[in-house]
Amino acid sequence: MYGAIEAGGTKFVCAIGNENLEIIEQVSFPTTTPKGKWRNYNFLDTLKSYFNVPIALTTDVNAAAYGEYVKGYEKKISNIVYFTIGTGIGGGGILNGELIEGFSHPEMGHMKVVPHPKDSYKGNCPFHGNCLEGMAAGPAIEKRNGVKGQDLSEEDSFWEIEAYYIAQCMYNTTLMLSPDVIVLGGGVMQQDHLVKKVRNQFKHMLKEYVQIPKINHYIVTPKLGQRSGIIGGLALAEKALYNARESIH
Amino acid sequence: MYGAIEAGGTKFVCAIGNENLEIIEQVSFPTTTPKGKWRNYNFLDTLKSYFNVPIALTTDVNAAAYGEYVKGYEKKISNIVYFTIGTGIGGGGILNGELIEGFSHPEMGHMKVVPHPKDSYKGNCPFHGNCLEGMAAGPAIEKRNGVKGQDLSEEDSFWEIEAYYIAQCMYNTTLMLSPDVIVLGGGVMQQDHLVKKVRNQFKHMLKEYVQIPKINHYIVTPKLGQRSGIIGGLALAEKALYNARESIH
């Protein structure tokens, strides 16, 4: 059996899964204590002091990317990038079976974006102002429109502006990593119409400069729905166990 | 002994190297036949029909990245991205020892960039107009200034505009891949002052959002000078031989 904890700003999800990475039991509880108070908390060593088992620790989007990678597709894929577009924007990915990690985990959500000609919003990222997160995350949608994205009509012209920013992210990701699939998760993407708008704008930007996989199989929403992260956590636990056994032999 | 061919638009460089990847002999000759006429030429199968040895084929920037990765640093690095800023702009990289390759080789040179507030140039990329290559490659420099970059004074204010675009590329690359080092090669980067301007603008953009390695060791010019590509070719030949032997055992 494997265990996984998905620690979010709103809630913690804890699950136990079997050897097929199927969830056997799951509980969630509100985080309550402000998210900021977890800063610098030594999660890993605390867990290690309670459980004498191999443990892996990574970002939410890395876990979600890994979940989609391991359990989202019947046919094995080699490369995947997962973005969450919600309260913030984050990205994580797998290349040739390994998480994309250099001197740091990726911070893809803060990439540069070209302002939409009809958008005068200056962005609300406290670090970079008008980076992708500053322009396209949930709070930036609400700031411009006075209502949350979920309360904005599907026909509202703002969605083309939103799609324009996300499409730039798809474009840069394609040219940098050319993954087999790019997954768009998170609260904002629960607007069904949005992924189609993103695909259209992305194709318009790319100008067929590189030959991408079929668009409906290339830019997609999560196959595992909202469980990508927690199932990814179980899959990472399995990998940690495998690595620990390998290092013994 | 290993052999390498670097096929460029201006010249072909051919080299033979020893087991330490040191060049024993090298010749180069002008390409003459227009670059475009090589399109769809089956380089790999033609070589295979002459030489019964393992052969690897990749892009110029992938080879240069691999050369810098294998021979550029005394202390082993895990991740590297190499950009050439010249007639065009291209990028290639190594993550955990493997070339970054998905459904395609990367086309990082065509990433989106935010126009500089003082730059009214619309860009000359035939595909994307004002992408990085369309704004910052050699021909775009010449178009704006009436002279080639090499004939433009170090004090010319244009260089800050040029650095602004390249810095955006460094910024996006950092947030997507966080490599140990980013190498800036190609003709335009032979302006010694430019890499410093890029570093300064990059730091200004990043706002210390992620903690990067020391800047002078992070954004660098090629350690192997203009030989990164051809030495990378020799290193890829060594790797092809190694892989071929592994697959026999």
Describe the structure.
Chains A, B: One of its GO terms (molecular function) is metal ion binding. Chains A, B: Its cofactor is Mg(2+). Chains A, B: It comes from Marinilactibacillus psychrotolerans. Chains A, B: Belongs to the ROK (NagC/XylR) family. Chains A, B: Pfam families: ROK. Two copies of one chain form a homodimer. Chain A is of the alpha/beta class and 249 residues long. Chain A has a domain at 74-222: Nucleotidyltransferase, domain 5, CATH 3.30.420.40. Chain A is built from eight helices and eight strands. Chain A has helices at 43-50, 60-71, 132-136, 138-145, 158-177, 192-206, 215-218, 228-248; strands at residues 2-7, 11-17, 23-30, 80-85, 89-95, 98-99, 181-185, 219-220. Chain A has a five-stranded mixed β-sheet, sandwiched between helices. In chain A, strands 1-2-3 form a three-stranded antiparallel β-sheet, covered by helices on one side. In chain A, a hairpin with a 5-residue loop joins strand 2 and strand 3. In chain A, helix 2 crosses helix 8 (228-248). The two termini of chain A are 22 Å apart. The mean pLDDT of chain A is 95. At the A-B interface, helix 5 of A face helix 5 of B.
